[in-house]
Amino acid sequence: MPRPDARSPSDGGVRAPLRVTSSANPNVALLKSLHAKKGRAETGWFLAEGARLALEAADQDAWPVLVAIAESALDRAHIKTFADDAAAHGARVLITTEKVLGQVARRDNPQTVIAAYRQRWAGLEALAAGAFAVALYEPRDPGNLGTILRACDAAGASGVALIGQACDPFSVECVRATMGSIFTTPVARTTFEELDAWRRARGFTMLAASLRATQRHDQAPLGERTLILMGNEQAGLPEEVEEACDALVRIPMRGRADSLNLAMAATLMVYEVWRRRGYDGA
Ligand code: SAM
């Protein structure tokens, strides 16, 4: 695999777009490698698909390091402007065919823009920017994680902490599910011990959503700042973790289902905490 070279040309100028028609091209191979954890770990990059996402990311001043664009899409003025701006921000721009894009995306009818970005991890401190944040204990499903990042973005949670062996927020599946929120919602990695010490020092009440709880989620004390803790899809939360929390809460259920999907439960929790804060900022 070629080494990623996201730097601008040494003369400081803008690199001209490359016309690429073969998926054997090393830049295309680099994009394709980002489907695998190994490729993402070696480059520190991740793949995001779609012009809408790329334009929204640009609005946040997040620019790709490498981007493949369908030649046919350059007729649209906003895509042409994006290609020029990305190049001006140091991106290597590939002008390519739908066939090559399909191979990069591993699907028929691929998006006309597929871009690689640098992975950005936040520190726990980023979660103290607002009144509530979310922590996920060893989440395994990237679709769930992406959906939770999207809900946190929508409700204005300040970020998400991933505890222990969590799935990769920069996987293609997770990024797809975030619908762009990967660029706006800080994600930190931590251990439970580190998180617990941090949240105590920063004055967060830790509220765990648990099927063992008796208190309803809309009746729990939120404190001045709330950290919402969610369990793993299969195993929930370990007992010692629940014991360290200020309160355990249960989202009411009355049918035969024994639990809600993790992303659904997290969304209900985040929206309940926001509702109790009067939908501040909506
Ligand atoms: N068998 C697991 C258990 O016993 O916890 C089920 C895990 S559930 C699919 C994943 C997570 O979603 C749970 O750990 C909890 O945080 C949250 N959750 C799901 N349904 C919930 C409910 N009705 N009330 C509170 N939390 C819930």
Fold topology:
Blueprint (H helix, E strand, L loop, with lengths): L17 E3 L5 H8 L3 H7 L1 E5 L1 H9 L6 E5 L6 H12 L3 E5 L1 H8 L7 E6 L13 E6 L4 H14 L4 E4 L8 H7 L8 E4 L1 H10 L2 E6 L5 E2 L8 E6 L8 H5 L3 E4 L11 H15 L6
Parallel strand pairs: 1-4, 3-4, 6-7, 6-11, 7-8, 9-11, 9-12, 10-12
Antiparallel strand pairs: 2-5, 3-5
Helix pairs in contact: 1-5, 6-7, 6-10
The structure holds S-adenosylmethionine.
How big a fraction of the residues is strand? 15-25%
CATH topology of the largest domain: Alpha/beta knot
CATH evolutionary superfamily of the largest domain: SPOUT methyltransferase, trefoil knot domain
The general outline is elongated
Low-confidence stretches: none
Distance between the termini: 46 Å
Largest sheet: 7 strands, parallel
CATH architecture of the largest domain, by name, is 3-Layer(aba) Sandwich
* Helix-strand topology string: EHHEHEHEHEEHEHEHEEEHEH
The ligands found in this model are: S-adenosylmethionine
Structural class: alpha/beta
- Count of DSSP-assigned helices: 10
Percent of residues in helices: 25-40%
Arithmetic mean pLDDT: 95
